[in-house]
Structure formats: C-alpha cells, structure tokens
Recover the amino acids of this structure.
C-alpha cells in the first residue's frame, strides 16, 4: 500500500463522535434513497471526515457489517472527486445489504453531486 501524508492510499478520516453525528442530522443537508441516506455539512477543520451508520433494522450483524463494507468501498471510489472539506454521514437502509458496491456508488455519486460535494464534471 502506498502512503501519502502518513495515511495509506484509500484511507479517510473517520467521523466517530456522537455530537458530530447529531450536528449533521440536525444542521446538515440530506438526500434520501431506498439504498442510502446521505448527510453533509461543510467542515470547519481542514479535512473531510466520513461516518457510516447501520441500525438494527438493516439486519443482524453480518448484514450490518456487509452494508458498512460496501458503503466504504463505494466512497473510496468517489473520494478523489470530493471538493473542499466536509463532514459526511452515510446511513445504510434495509436494502443496502442486498446490493452491490457499484449500485451504492451510483446512488452515492448522485446524492453527493446534488449536495455539492463532488467536483463538477462527474467521474474522472
């Protein structure tokens, strides 16, 4: 794995404080889809942080872990296109575990473009 600025290639900063999640839920912009809900807010710190949540409605532990894995893989594909500094939370829905990372990436790309997070012009 190639490292850049002390981080492995494809790694991203994690949003993991409850207060940060709550701030995004109440003050951030959101987009809803049957596969994924996305919340975003401009970050006041100098980098983008990402959080992923899966509730018990998604399924048992295996389905929740799979949902997190495919959301993480989809975001890593889109990460180079993120412009600026954002706090982003992805919330898995009940259909997320049964879909592929390509499906999630397509939905995620559309949501992030509508919310103004991605660089205009689509995929590079």
């Amino acid at each position: 794995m190639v490292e850049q600025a002390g981080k492995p290639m494809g790694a991203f900063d994690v949003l993991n404080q409850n207060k940060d999640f709550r701030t995004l839920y109440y003050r951030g912009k959101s987009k809803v889809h049957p596969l994924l809900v996305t919340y975003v807010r401009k970050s006041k710190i100098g980098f983008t942080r990402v959080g992923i949540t899966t509730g018990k409605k998604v399924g048992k532990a295996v389905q929740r872990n799979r949902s997190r894995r495919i959301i993480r893989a989809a975001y890593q594909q889109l990460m180079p296109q993120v412009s600026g500094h954002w706090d982003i939370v992805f919330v898995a829905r009940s259909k997320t575990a049964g879909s592929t990372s390509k499906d999630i990436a397509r939905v995620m790309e559309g949501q992030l473009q509508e919310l103004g997070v991605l660089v205009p012009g689509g995929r590079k």
Q: What stands out?
A: Helices lie at 18-27, 61-78, 101-114. The chain has three helices and seven strands. The longest helix spans residues 61-78. Strands lie at 3-4, 7-8, 13-14, 29-32, 36-42, 49-53, 86-92.
